[in-house]
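One such given next:
>
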Amino acid sequence: MDSKMSGGEASGPILLTGATGKVGRLLRGVWPTVSGAPALVPVARRPGAGVVWEPGAPTDGLPRAAVVAAFWGVVPGPGRDLSRNAELAGAAMALGRAVGARLVIHCSTSAVYAPGPETLTEEDTPAPPGPYGAAKLEMEAAVARHVAADPQGPRAVCLRIGNVAGAESLFDAMTRAHEVTLDRFADGAGPERNYIAPSDLARVVVALAAADPARLPAILNVGAPRTTAMEAIARAAGRPVLWRVAPEGAARRVALDVSRMLAICPLDDRAADPAHLVSDWRAALAAAA
């Protein structure tokens, strides 16, 4: 970790909201394997996954915490209100203040960017092509407003995460069926994305928790140092690949510049290795079960 960023170790536990969601379950599974990780306190709306709590409820029963990792959110689906992502961000900031956290980590997405041939940096102007990215961009704006309105409250960082291994469409497809179908583009290749294994995402959270919040960027791209082909992941999992012609508007490659993240939490090229992504996914699932 960059010595300018370091604040030592987190001075208390990390509260994980969204503990029963896809990413939350994966993080809970890998957390014991991460060196130097502070205690993780899962927070969920129903019993069985840690402390039971939901926005609007009293916070008296929650422990004091150094960091709130807000991995809750509304994802696309029939009847789902994506605008609630901004509301949940505000609830996370209020929760952070209530438990004495110095930092709140918010789960945003690379979908706030317009995909294109160039590597995407945090300085690029967001141009979400769909409603999910637009809702997450509004969430980021809500976070910024909360921080500006409460200068003595917790700091915040929004993670523009690429693809979490085990929590997106390719891994969903490999869970449902033996074969997977991928888009084939005019150059004969399939999609590439910046993936990140659950244990590597946990390392990023731990590194952020140990950093000086005042020195953290408000926005942080998160993913492996290079893109990984979806075909390579499927084959590493032993899954046959079927092809279809890529529909109009499909993105061949979405590449994130993660240099800011690597200055805080160094990851090497192995983080993008298909076998690593698959084995980490399977280990997280087994541990969470």
Q: What stands out?
A: The mean pLDDT is 94. The longest strand covers residues 103-109. The helical segments are 22-30, 84-98, 131-149, 169-176, 198-210, 230-236, 259-264, 274-288. The chain is about 30% helix and 20% strand.
